[in-house]
Amino acid sequence: MRLRIRVTHWPRRALVLTDTPHPRCPNCQGEGGTEQHYGDHTGEYAGTDWDVCPCWNDTRRLVLLPLRRRRTDDGAPWAPAGYSDKAPF
User: Where does the source fall among the domains of life (predicted)?
Assistant: First the structure.
């Protein structure tokens, strides 16, 4: 198991300890899986499937610290950045 710390945003914002793909895996070369492109009945590109490599479990994670949601505003309804652009006179 090769662990790293990262921020996740789903189902809630948190700092998690997660597994990473094996860097020298002969199947995925450390990418964690392979892409499979497919087409529709006319032969046009219709999408991509992702096949997860067995060297990696992308669902294995441990929440270390739940994080608060980011505020989109700074609480000042009269100014976009909290400061006024208008002169005082």
Answer: Bacteria
In a domain, 83, yes or no: no
Q: Which residue range forms the structural domain that includes residue 29?
A: 3-66
- Quote the CA–CA distance of 19 and 8 in Å, as a whole number: 13
Q: What is the pLDDT of residues 16-37, one digit of tens each?
A: 999 889 999 999 999 999 999 9
- Domains held by the chain: number: 1
Q: What is d(CA 58, CA 7) in angstroms, rounded to the nearest whole number?
A: 14
pLDDT in tens, 70-83: 655 555 555 555 56
* Cα–Cα distance, 39 to 74 (Å, whole number): 47
Whether residue 51 is contained in a domain is answered as yes
